[in-house]
């Protein structure tokens, strides 16, 4: 099979790998039809994670069809499914509390050993899914594979951030970052009842957003105050994962407001405006999106026509063009790239 393999910073290879085999009774093998490049994938690509192992098959957003199952997996061959990016056993005390990221067996597809043991990712023609009875979910007939793969990560992350921020009808919401996750967070905020949504991004190519006004980062706090008679944003979603983004979120939030940080933070030490946060009595919550917890309500939003996550897709390329996809995404010439293993992009049954 063909697989997208990390070979070092800015080096992506398409390699022939053996089709994976079952390793236990809770495994499944999925033939991938649609997979995507995520902003998280850019951290090793940019050389920001020196511990990331060369030879890793990348990708944690994917959907496809079941081709083989272990005896404890309740799926049948040919069934359409999508995967959670978070791998968890579903049976331990942490999982019972909905804390799958803290499961003793937790992992992330295609992420080397950053979280738990390395598990090959879904940017490949086939992928082995551990704990498939928990990690996989059936794709409804009226949901496309493209839509489903977003439920496996960034749409669920956006939804979790909005939920953690406690957004209420009539609130003004600020979003730091107008990339795919930020745009989907803004869309979820609208569904939650936000009256106004303002986003911040330094890239002028992201200034035209279907979900809210986009300003430059240094303008976000003022824009939020203008919408609230000087008060500030009732809630802020930080969707970048940098110290400067977190500072901008604290600056924009209103007194007693909540900042939900859903961007991936990996700095060991970073300046933090504790004086501003304290004076505002602000709440700061770091949120790791957990599709295993929120995928049902997120699927319901898609099926009801309230959110179509494919609106953030700018490029659809074959798996063989993965190196181009990474280069486009890194240069911000692409908003979101979906890689397909078939001649045409997959769609829902009957579409």
TrEMBL record:
<keyword id="KW-0560">Oxidoreductase</keyword>
<comment type="similarity">
    <text>Belongs to the zinc-containing alcohol dehydrogenase family.</text>
</comment>
<dbReference type="InterPro" id="IPR020843">
    <property type="entry name" value="ER"/>
</dbReference>
<dbReference type="Pfam" id="PF08240">
    <property type="entry name" value="ADH_N"/>
</dbReference>
<dbReference type="InterPro" id="IPR036291">
    <property type="entry name" value="NAD(P)-bd_dom_sf"/>
</dbReference>
<keyword id="KW-0862">Zinc</keyword>
<dbReference type="InterPro" id="IPR013154">
    <property type="entry name" value="ADH-like_N"/>
</dbReference>
<dbReference type="Pfam" id="PF00107">
    <property type="entry name" value="ADH_zinc_N"/>
</dbReference>
<dbReference type="InterPro" id="IPR011032">
    <property type="entry name" value="GroES-like_sf"/>
</dbReference>
<keyword id="KW-0479">Metal-binding</keyword>
<feature type="domain" description="Enoyl reductase (ER)">
    <location>
        <begin position="8"/>
        <end position="339"/>
    </location>
</feature>
<dbReference type="InterPro" id="IPR013149">
    <property type="entry name" value="ADH-like_C"/>
</dbReference>
<protein>
    <submittedName>
        <fullName>Alcohol dehydrogenase catalytic domain-containing protein</fullName>
    </submittedName>
</protein>
<dbReference type="InterPro" id="IPR002328">
    <property type="entry name" value="ADH_Zn_CS"/>
</dbReference>
């Amino acid at each position: 099979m063909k697989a997208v393999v990390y070979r070092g910073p800015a080096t992506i290879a398409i390699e022939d790998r053996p089709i994976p085999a079952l390793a236990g009774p809770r495994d499944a093998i999925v033939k991938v039809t649609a997979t995507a490049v995520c902003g998280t994938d850019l951290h090793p690509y940019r050389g920001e994670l020196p511990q990331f192992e060369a030879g890793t098959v990348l990708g944690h957003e994917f959907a496809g069809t079941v081709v083989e199952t272990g005896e404890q997996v309740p799926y049948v061959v040919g069934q359409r499914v999508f995967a959670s990016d978070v791998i968890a056993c579903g049976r331990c005390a942490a999982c019972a509390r909905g804390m799958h990221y803290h499961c003793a067996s937790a992992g992330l597809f295609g992420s080397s050993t950053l979280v738990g043991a390395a598990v090959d990712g879904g940017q490949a023609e086939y992928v082995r899914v551990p704990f498939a009875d928990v990690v996989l979910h059936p794709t409804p007939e009226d949901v496309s594979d493209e839509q489903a793969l977003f439920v496996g990560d960034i749409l669920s992350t956006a939804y979790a951030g909005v939920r953690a921020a406690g957004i209420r009808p009539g609130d003004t919401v600020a979003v730091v970052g107008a990339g795919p996750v930020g745009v989907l967070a803004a869309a979820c905020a609208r569904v939650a009842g936000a009256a106004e949504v303002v986003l911040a991004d330094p890239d002028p190519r992201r200034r035209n957003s279907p979900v809210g006004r986009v300003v430059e980062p240094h303008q976000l706090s003022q824009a939020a105050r203008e919408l609230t008679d000087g008060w500030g944003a009732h809630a802020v979603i930080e969707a970048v994962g940098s110290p400067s983004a977190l500072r901008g979120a604290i600056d924009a939030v209103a007194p007693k407001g909540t900042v939900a940080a859903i961007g991936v933070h990996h700095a060991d030490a970073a300046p933090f405006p504790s004086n501003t946060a304290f004076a505002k009595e602000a709440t700061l919550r770091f949120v790791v999106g957990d599709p295993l917890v929120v995928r049902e309500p997120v699927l319901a939003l898609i099926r009801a026509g309230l959110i179509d996550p494919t609106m953030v897709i700018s490029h659809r390329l074959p798996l063989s063009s993965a190196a181009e996809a990474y280069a486009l995404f890194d240069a911000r010439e692409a908003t979101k790239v979906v890689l397909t293993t078939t001649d045409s992009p997959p769609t829902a049954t009957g579409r």
